[in-house]
Queue: 2 jobs
Job 1
Amino acid sequence: MAENKRIFLSSPNMSSQGYEMEYIKLAFDTNWIAPLGQNVDGFENEMCVYTGAKQAAALSAGTAAIHLGLKAAGVKEGDRVFCQTLTFSATANPIIYLGAEPVFIDSDEKTWNMSPVALRRAFEKYPDTKYVVVVHLYGLAADIDEIKNICDEYGAVIIEDAAESLGTTYKGKMTGTFGDYGIYSFNGNKIITTSGGGMLVCNLDDETARERIQKVRFWSTQSRDPARHYQHSEIGYNYRMSNIVAGIGRGQLKVLDERVAQKRAIFARYKEAFADIADIHMMPINDFCEPNCWLTCFTLAGEKVCPNEIMDALGAENIESRPIWKPMHLQPFFEKYDYIDNGSVAEKLFTSGVCLPSDTNMTEEQQVKVISIVRSFFN
Ligand SMILES: *Cc1c(COP(=O)(O)O)cnc(C)c1O
C-alpha cells in the first residue's frame, strides 16, 4: 500500500512546528474572523521584509493581485498589454477583465521566460504600448535587466508575475521587486500556500507605493467611500485576504527558506541522476539567478522518447507529472490576439517538456523511484 501512495508535483507542506496554527488561533482568540486584522497586516509587513518590496496588499488570489496590479498601473479599456505567452492563463485573464488587449510575446531559450528579442520586435510594431507582464516560470528568473532596458526606452511599465518564484533572486534581489508592481500566489500548489491567496507588491518610491497600495486595498474591499451609508464613486471588488488565511501565510513564511532549500535539493538530485542522458536537457539555471526550483522541469531532445510516454509511465505508478504550460497564443480563447514570435521557443518548450514531481513532502526514496522510471526509457 505505502509504496503506491501518490507522489505529487507540489503539495501543501505546513511547518512541523505548527506556526500556522498559532496564527490561526490568534485570529480565533481575537475574533478577527474577517478580511482584515492583525494577521493580514502582519503578513503584508513580513512579505515586505522578506522580499524587500516597499508596500504590499494581501488579496484573495494571485489572479486578483494581477488584476488590481494592472489597474493600479493604469491599464484600462482598449489599452494594449505585452504578455509572456508561455504561462498559466491567470497571467493573461486579468488583461481581458480590464477590457484591454494582450499581445503575446515568445520566450527565450536561455531563460524560458520573455524573450528580449521578441519584446523589442513587439515595441517596433506597437511603439505606444505602456504595459508589459513578465513571468518567472517554475522559479526561473526572466532576464529582467534586458527587459527593463527595453521597457525604459519605450516608457513602459513592468508588472512581474512572480506567482511561481517567491524566494528566487535575480542578481541577488528578489523576483517580484523589479517591476513597478509584482505579484505572488499562495495557491495550494505554490512553494508556500495559504490554501488560496495572493499578494500585490509595489516597488515605486515610498510615497507613491503607499498611495497606490492604499488604493488597491480600497478597491479590494468594494471601494467604499468614507460615509455612514454605503457610498461608491468607483467600481469595487471583493478581493481582500481573510485574516485566517493570512495566519497560514505568516506561518508558512517562517519555513519558506527551508522549502526553497528542499526544492533546490530535489532539482540537484534529478540533475545528477540524468547527467549522463544526452537527450534530457534540464531547465536552464543562469548565473544571474538563484532559483527557488518550485518545479523541476526538463525538455527532451531527439525523437526516441516523447514526453507523453514518460508522463504515462509515471501516471501508471500514481506519480503526478505535467507538460510545460501550453502557450497562450495557442489557446482557443486567446488565439485571436497578436503574437510576436522568436523561433517558436514557447511552443517547442510545451511540446518537448515535462514537469517532474517536486514536492517537499516527497521522500528521497520516492524520488529515486521517479528517477528510475524516467531512466528506464534511455537504457
Ligand atoms: C498560480 C499562478 C497564478 C495565479 O495565482 P492564483 O493564486 O492561483 O490566482 C498566476 N500566474 C502564474 C504563473 C501562476 O503559476
Job 2
Amino acid sequence: MDDIAQRLSDIVARHGPEALAVSTSQWNTQSDNGLGRRFMNLLGSPNWISGVAMCADNTAAINRMVYGWFPYPDYPNTKCIVLFGHNPKRHSWTPVYNAIRRAQESGAKLIVLDPRRSENAEMADLWLPLKPGSDAAMCFGWLKVIIEEKLYDREFVANWTTGFEALRARVSEFPLERVEQLTGVQAEQIAAAARLYATSGPAVIPWTPVTDQQRNSTSAIRLMCMLRAICGNVDVPGGEVLHGFHPDVVHESELELHGALTEVQRAKQLGSDTHPAFTYRGMAALREPSQRVWGHEWPNLINGCYMANPSAVFRAMADGAPYPVKAFFTLGNNTLMSFANMQLIERALLNQDLVVALEHFRTPTAQLADYILPGDAWLERNCLSDGFGWTAIYRPSQKVVEPPGSCRGAFDFWSGLAQRMGMVEQFPWETHESLLDERLAGLGMSFEEFAAKHAYHMRGLEYRKYERTGFATPSGKVELHSDLLDGLGFDPLPYWRDDLPFDTEFPLTLFMGVREDEYFQTGHRHISALRARNPEPLMHISPADAGTLGLPEGRWVDVETRQGKVRLKTAIRLEMPAGVVRVPHGWWLPERAEGDGTLSGAWIHADAQICPDDADHLDREQGIPHLKGIACRVSAVAEWE
Ligand SMILES: Nc1nc2c(c(=O)[nH]1)N[C@H]1C(S)=C(S)[C@@H](COP(=O)(O)OP(=O)(O)OC[C@H]3O[C@@H](n4cnc5c(=O)[nH]c(N)nc54)[C@H](O)[C@@H]3O)O[C@H]1N2
Ligand SMILES: Nc1nc2c(c(=O)[nH]1)N[C@H]1C(S)=C(S)[C@@H](COP(=O)(O)OP(=O)(O)OC[C@H]3O[C@@H](n4cnc5c(=O)[nH]c(N)nc54)[C@H](O)[C@@H]3O)O[C@H]1N2
Ligand SMILES: [Mo]
C-alpha cells in the first residue's frame, strides 16, 4: 500500500490526477459505500468506469432524463408484465423470477419479446420473436398503436408530459408494416401486444440488459420510459415506482462527494465530448431538479451516473490521447473481458505505469497487474445494501467469518490509500463498521442493531409523489421531447438508426448472452464441480443453420466478426431462430497458461475480442457497445482438443 500510494502520487505529480482511471462493477455497489468515487473526487479524477455501463446503470441514467429517477416494478399489484429479452430463471434473477410467477398466479398477463423461445417465452401469454437489436423499432410500433387507438392516459399526458405532439409526429413515421419489416414480427401480433400492455390495468416493463447493450440503446430505453409514462404506469400501484432516497439513511451518492470535483477536472472526463449521456456533462442539467425533488444534487443511481466513457478511457490509456492515463485500478471487475474491443483493453493495460487489481483470483485482467491485492468475500464483510441505489429498501448482510490471511475489502483499500495521500480528514472512519453506523445513525441504530432487527427496512411507498414535487427533470414533467439531449447535440426525440448494411462475408447475426446457471459472468470456471456440469463455451444455433453449415452437435467452430474470432462448441437448439447464433459471455480457462499472449484461454474464448467499439457499433449518446446483433460467420475447426 505504501508503494502504491507513492507510485500513484508520482503519476499524479507528473500527469495530473486525471491520469488515474478506476474500473469496477457490481461488486462495487455492494461493498464500497461510495468511497471509491469519494477518493477520486477528492484527488481530482473524473475517470471512473464500470462494467455496469452495460447493465442497468446506464438505464438508470437515461431514465432520469425522462422522469427523474429509475423506477422499480410493483410486482405484487401489477396486471401485466413485459419482458424485453430479460429472462429471469430459477438460478438467474431468482427474486424477480419468483415475483413474476406469483403475479402470473394472481392473473397478471406476461408478454415476452425475445428472438429465442426462452423459458419465459414458453410461459407467456404472448411471445413476439423479434430480430436481435430491434427493440427500439418494436417500441415505436407499440406507441403507434397506443396513440392511434387512444389507449393512453390522456389526463396524465395533458398534465404531466412535455412534447407529446412532437412524439406523435415521430411515431407516425412508423406504420406497422415498417415495424414488421424492422423487427420481423407480424403487424397483428405487434398490435395485439401493444393493446394488451395498454389495457390490462397497471403494467410493468421491468429493466432489461438487452437494451443496455445496443447501438439503439438510448432510444430504446427512452421509448420504454415513454410507454410507461403515457400509459399512466409511472408511480402508481401495480406500475413502476420512483422510490427516491430513504430519508433516514446516508446514501452512497452523498458519501461520494461529487461536489468536491472541480469544474475544471469534471470537464476533463474522457468521452464526455463524444458520448456524454451518463457523464458529468450529460447529466449537469439534472442537478437542480434532483436537488428540488430528491433533496440531493448528485443522485448516483446504480452507480451509473457521472461515469466516463469506457472506450475513451481505454484509448487514453493505450495511446495517451487526448491526455495520458498511466495508473489503473481494477476492483472486483474482470476489465479485459467485460467491455468491447479486448485488443484495445490489453494494449491499454500494458501501457500503464501502475495497475492494481483487488481480486479473489488470477483473472486474465489480474494477470496483467503489478499488484494483486486479495479481496475479502461477501461472507467476510458487513454490507448495507439499497438495491444498488434503485430502491429505498435497505438490507443488511452480516459478516459470518473473518477474511483469511491478508484479504481486505474496499474500505481498507480506499481509506488506506486516502490516509497515505493526505486525505485523513475526509476519511475519518476508524473501521468499516463505524462508517456503517454513521450511515444508520438517522434510524437511531448501529449496524449491529439494525441487522438484528431488520431483514429489510423501508418506509411505506408513497405513490404519485410528482403531484407534490413535480418530476426531477428541468421542466418538472415527463420529458418526451428532451431539451437536455437537444442541448448536447442529439435528437431530442427517440429515433431509429438503420441497421448496418448487410455484409455478404458475414451473413449470420450473433448476440451475446443467455446466462449460464453454473457461473456468474466471467467467474467460477475454476470450480471443478461447476465446470463438470458445464465444461465448454457453447454456440447455440438453429437446426436449419447447423444443417446448411454441415455442423454436427459438438463440432468446434470459430465465430468470427470484423473485430476478431472466438472458438466455441456447436450446440443445436430448437429454440434458436434461423440466421442467429448465440455467443456466451466471459469464457476463459483458469487451468491454462497465464500471462500476456494467452491469458488463460481468454484469447481463445472471450466474447470481448469479437465486440467492436467503432462509431457504427456504439450507441451515439452513451457510447456503449452493440452486443445484440453483430454480423458474423461460422466456420468449422478441423481438429481441436
Ligand atoms: N463483452 C461483454 N462485456 C460485458 C457483458 C457481456 O455480455 N459481454 N456483460 C455486461 C454485464 S451484464 C455486466 S453486469 C458486467 C459485469 O462485469 P463484472 O461485474 O466485472 O463481472 P464479473 O465477470 O463477474 O467480474 C467480477 C470479478 O470480481 C471478482 N470478485 C467477485 N466477488 C468479489 C469480492 O467480493 N471482492 C473482490 N475484490 N473481487 C470479487 C471475481 O473474481 C471476478 O473476477 O459486464 C458487462 N460487460
Ligand atoms: N446464473 C447466473 N445468473 C445471472 C448471471 C449469470 O452470469 N449467471 N448474470 C446476471 C447479470 S449481470 C445479468 S445482467 C442478468 C441477465 O439476465 P437476462 O436478462 O435474463 O439476460 P440473458 O440470459 O443474457 O438474455 C436474456 C434473453 O435475451 C434474449 N435476446 C438476445 N438478444 C436480444 C435482443 O436483441 N432483443 C431482445 N428483446 N431479446 C434478446 C436472449 O435470447 C435471452 O433469452 O442475469 C444475472 N443473473
Ligand atoms: Mo449484468
